[in-house]
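Example 3.2
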Amino acid sequence: MHQGYTQLPDTGDLLIITKSLKDVMSIHDCLGISAIGLQSESVLMKDSVMDEYKQRFSKVICLFDNDEPGKKFTEGFVERFNIPHFFVPEMPGVTDFSDLVKKLGVDKASEDLKLLIKNL
């Protein structure tokens, strides 16, 4: 089971798939967006699980780390599941959304993420 799965609503407009519980919590707490976290960026989910997410949510997108391993994993993930993706802006010490919150603060990080999602 993915991190945050039991907190998901039955249906929704948007689900963000990320790679850690800290990002799931940051995305939910800062933006009120449903999110789940994989166990790591090296474990793909089953097709049937992605099918469930796509049935429950109008849009499913992924947000993995903006470092090399994260980008490599993202490439295979989006190809396999045919979903959009984005990365947090590249800046020193920032590889994921929770890092962005620490660096910029909740308001600015949330504003930046909302803009990235809107532009998908």
